[in-house]
């Protein structure tokens, strides 16, 4: 089986999110490294943090990066076969770049917190929003956004699976977009609990600040190719990686296209590396050639190990 790892991003956090991984030394050490780097007790937040705190983007982004890399490091410790490709959903792309060897974990921690700070500064809390639109074609969602914008920003932000698109923009436009989507026959259109409207034009100012930060850090060509959200390309040139991360902030996450590219490359198994179970169920909906597995606790990782050991790799 030729397989890929994908890393979840913001939205996969939850109270007690690391409980399924026990108190393994590698897991804890990763959280210690994050605490030493950013002077924040992310293990306490992962274990006992209040849901309201976990929803704050300046906490969520480095916390989810740490959780993703902790699970990745645990996987590495088991001496199992390496994935052929990597990707990460939005914020998860930073974890994919760390796993692929393009970026150090320490630099990624600084980047994700800086990214979160700039995103929050670009759009004050309460003035922007996001909503999930279910049961409409992509073109219908885009048409609903164009109709409901009325001079405000309202755009398709995440193409997560066929019939599941997230929109982002100003709060007033989001409310109009929800009604426009319902009028076009959406099965559901619901506002999401997000403190910033990611992947839309409201993030252009934040992307400019992020570009300056990215230029100050060292990137390498990834050892394992990473499929980027914004252009569905696998970049080897560090300059191209920086550009992709800058554009990712204000361009939509093209998750459907990214996974279909993986399937075209011969990938059949997708492992979601991190807490939660958001990305794995999307795999089969996106492409019949793909099977998704969520490594959301130690038992699931053991099951994945058994799958690999029973397959022809």
Rounded mean pLDDT is 95
Give the terminus-to-terminus CA distance.
5 Å
Q: Largest beta sheet: what is the strand line-up?
A: 7-2-1-9-10
**Structural class, judged by helices and strands?**
alpha/beta
Q: Based on Cα principal axes, name the global outline.
A: globular
Contiguous runs where pLDDT drops below 50 for at least 5 residues: none
Radius of gyration: 18 Å
Helix fraction bin: 40-55%
Number of helices: 13
User: What is the tally of beta strands?
Assistant: 10
Give the secondary structure arrangement, pairings included.
Elements: E1 3-7, H1 25-38, H2 42-48, H3 51-54, H4 57-77, E2 85-88, H5 92-99, H6 105-122, E3 128-134, H7 138-149, E4 154-161, E5 164-170, H8 171-183, E6 188-191, H9 204-215, E7 226-227, H10 238-248, E8 253-254, H11 255-264, E9 269-272, H12 282-286, E10 291-294, H13 298-309
Parallel strand pairs: 1-2, 1-9, 2-7, 4-8, 9-10
Antiparallel strand pairs: 3-5, 3-6, 4-5
Helix pairs in contact: 1-4, 4-5, 4-6, 6-9, 7-8, 9-10
